[in-house]
């Protein structure tokens, strides 16, 4: 098979490209390079520069590279930005997916792995997750246009699958961190680990939003997944799709959580970051932010049962590898990555 990875030069996409190429899969990448970096890709993997919203380009890539399966990661993904630019998010995230699916059905490409997000769940009410564990049957109540586009994207993928005979897997990522190697690290400052790195680098104390939650140390608990484990989950999904003819008809539309199934509190994570960086200054505690759930941890049982996949890397490895990447970027540019809006424990 030949796999098209859209968004394959991005932080997660490049890890997926390396994992699939390293496993012997034929891979081609389509990326508009709005946030992707060509040097992240293996030298042998061809890169086509452009957007999934361009139907002629998508059709040409599928035909010229004889693509037989697609891993679709290309999307805008910042929750805060989606609130201020919802039209852009719907146009690019859903418009690009619609264009891709139309080209796939026209070309006879019948296998698709779709990059979704735990943002589809929003913050489920306590009665829906009394133990704080989110399963694939937990009601989806997205709280941002970004989360809405991911949920609507899943609906579109399933509808196209039913109508046109596509075999599909939707992967709902929880909080992604770390790097397989420093050169592949995420240089943005959108999530808690790089946000803490940024404050420490600037000589400032980390911040905790609320320490009065009903958790052991009063801070929110979240599920973190190493990006290398996430890449391996995509490889497992690709293998399942490649063998789709051997899967029962009612199993050809799969949606799974991708997480470790273990929670880490914000205070525990900041303490660990202090140990790894050698800067263990005490965090500042600010008031709670509206909408933050006390605990949100993935049930990863279905991914193990259906894909044969489980996460293998722990939180310390995530922090250590992310710190190595942060230092590499700072050393190569002379400055730390610029800080932008993000969220502690935000579900991506």
Keyword list:
about 350 residues; 15 strands; Rossmann fold; four-stranded mixed sheet; globular; disordered C terminus; alpha/beta; UDP-galactose 4-epimerase, domain 1; 2 domains; about 40% helix; seven-stranded parallel sheet
Architecture overview:
A seven-stranded parallel sheet has the order 3-2-1-4-5-7-12, with helices on both faces. The protein has a four-stranded mixed sheet with strand order 6-15-10-13. A two-stranded parallel sheet has the order 8-11. It is 39% helix and 17% strand. It has two domains: 2-176 and 226-258, NAD(P)-binding Rossmann-like Domain (Rossmann fold, 3-Layer(aba) Sandwich); 178-223 and 260-333, UDP-galactose 4-epimerase, domain 1 (Alpha-Beta Complex), CATH 3.90.25.10. By secondary structure, the chain is an alpha/beta fold. Residues 338-348 have low confidence and may be disordered. Helix 1 (11-22) crosses helix 7 and helix 4 (86-107) packs parallel to helix 5.
